[in-house]
Specification:
two-stranded antiparallel sheet, Cytidine Deaminase, domain 2, six-stranded mixed sheet, 5 helices
């Protein structure tokens, strides 16, 4: 089985989801050969909602929209030979499932925007990670079935590891 995320990446994604609760978190992991880069992205859904609530009825509690500046950073890295391997976000007080909205946003027409990417959804219930589930496009089924899941046992291990983690400045994640 291919490695979807490293243990450190999973811990970082879950930590971000808790940090940004009660709003959805989002980001990507890009790869170039053996090099991996996790980019935490800013969710601008609240700004879109404030500007035009009719067109954007949902807030960041139930939706995410990656900041256009982050999309530009992703595009620059793609032009340098990186590929989008993982697209992640969290669900606030809801399960780690691939919603109909998630599916619509992952498709352009009937085809996936990133056919080789894995989508991770982390469930954060009352401020605590409950589970993270991975979904990947299956061209035969024309859907995004689950391809892996990490439950609360991982969250306990992460809590122990968090006590030993280096400061944010020492980590190899890109932030704004």
């Amino acid at each position: 089985m291919i490695e979807i995320v490293t243990p450190d990446e999973l811990a970082t994604i879950r930590h971000q989801a808790v940090e940004e609760y009660p709003e959805e978190s989002c980001g990507v992991i890009l790869v170039r050969g053996a090099e991996r880069r996790l980019l935490r992205c800013r969710n601008v859904q609240n700004e879109l909602h404030a500007r035009d609530p009719e067109r954007n009825p949902r807030t960041a509690r139930t939706a995410y929209h990656i900041d256009p500046q982050d999309l530009l950073r992703i595009g620059r890295l793609e032009s340098e030979g990186f590929g989008v391997a993982v697209i992640y976000h969290s669900h606030v007080d809801a399960g780690a499932y691939f919603s109909e909205t998630d599916r619509r946003q992952a498709l352009i027409g009937d085809e996936p925007a990133y056919p080789d990417a894995t989508y991770l959804v982390t469930a954060v219930i009352m401020g605590r990670v409950e589970a993270t589930t991975a979904f990947r496009w299956d061209p035969t089924r024309r859907d995004f079935p689950s391809v892996g899941s990490w439950g609360t046992e991982v969250a306990v291990a992460e809590a122990v590891r968090d006590e030993r983690q280096p400061s944010r400045a020492d980590r190899k994640e890109e932030t704004r």
